[in-house]
């Protein structure tokens, strides 16, 4: 990454990892969808990343804390998308 004088980069996140299956289940509940969430749990592939999350410690040192938990953030985003999907 190229450094630019006077600027800094920050990760924004809760510091917790969430699976795609977990996100799908939350979005299904939020949307009221009747579509089943199907998952095939299989052996993880070699060299596959098990967990990934945003480390926002640098931002927290400035006093920032996450405002939303994952379900609240997804709900807010989903509602915003519904109300703005035709606004072009």
Query: What's the shape?
Result: extended
Number of strands: 0
- What is the structural class? mainly alpha
Succession of helices and strands: HHH
The main sheet comes to:
none
Can you give the mean pLDDT? 85
Span between N and C termini?
33 Å
How much of the polypeptide forms β-strand, as a percent range? under 5%
Query: What's the total helix number?
Result: 3
Low-confidence runs of at least 5 consecutive residues: none
Helix content: 25-40%
Using the CA coordinates, give the radius of gyration.
Answer: 17 Å
What can you tell me about this protein's structure?
This protein is an all-alpha fold and 88 residues long. It has a domain at 54-88. Helices cover 35% and strands 0% of the residues. It is built from 3 helices and no strands. The protein has helices spanning 20-31, 57-60, 70-84. Helix 1 (20-31) crosses helix 3. The radius of gyration is 17 Å and the shape is extended.
Short description:
The protein has 88 residues and is mostly helical.
Index terms:
mainly alpha; 35% helix; extended; 88 residues; single chain; 3 helices
SSE blueprint and pairings:
Elements: H1 20-31, H2 57-60, H3 70-84
